[in-house]
Amino acid sequence: MNLSRLACFALAVSLIACAPVQPPKQEMPVASSVPAPTPADVVVRINAAQDGQSVEVALNQRFAVELVGVPTAGYIWAPAQIPAFVTRAGEASGNTTQAQSQPGFAGGNHWEVLMFVATAPGSGELVLEQRRPWETSEPPTAVFRVTIVAR
Asked: Residue 86: what are its φ and ψ, rounded to 5°?
């Protein structure tokens, strides 16, 4: 009787150990204990709460998309679609909590700030995807969309 229990336990542990690992589900928080490291000259700051919305930006003025990611696990935010009238204008990253500044702290979520400039009037969808760059055949773990209206 004890031998069959042991065999069942060993089988259960083996099955759990062989289960596929799922990528981390990303919560896109609106607030954090440490603000996004967006430069002071950026007037329009777009955050996770604005996913699916339209945002007006001025011509030739930098705007930023501030999202939380897990770059320590390889998951980074990158543009999948940029309107023709928008160009990249920098990026920044940083801690989301004070604890991440302490010695020995490893991993965790980080701010990823992608900056852009609208160089002409227009309206179009900016799409950012979170994924591991080397996993080209895998779907993104998260997608952020915002319609940019430049005037």
From this structure: -115, 140
Question: How far apart, in whole angstroms, are the C-alpha atoms of residue 144 and residue 104?
Answer: 32
CATH code given to domain 26-150: 2.60.40.2020
SS3 of 90, please?
strand
Domain boundaries, the chain: 26-150
Residues 130 and 124: their CA atoms lie apart, in Å, by 20
- Read off the pLDDT of residues 10-44 as tens digits, 9 standing for 90 and up: 555 454 545 444 444 444 444 448 999 999 999 99
Measured distance CA(6)–CA(2) in Å, rounded: 6
Look-up of token digits 């003025």: 61
Phi, psi angles (nearest 5°) of residue 119: -95, -5
Cα–Cα distance, 96 to 33 (Å, whole number): 6
CA distance 140 to 49: 19
SS (HEC) of 45-72: EEEHHHCCCEEEECECCEEEEEEEEEHH
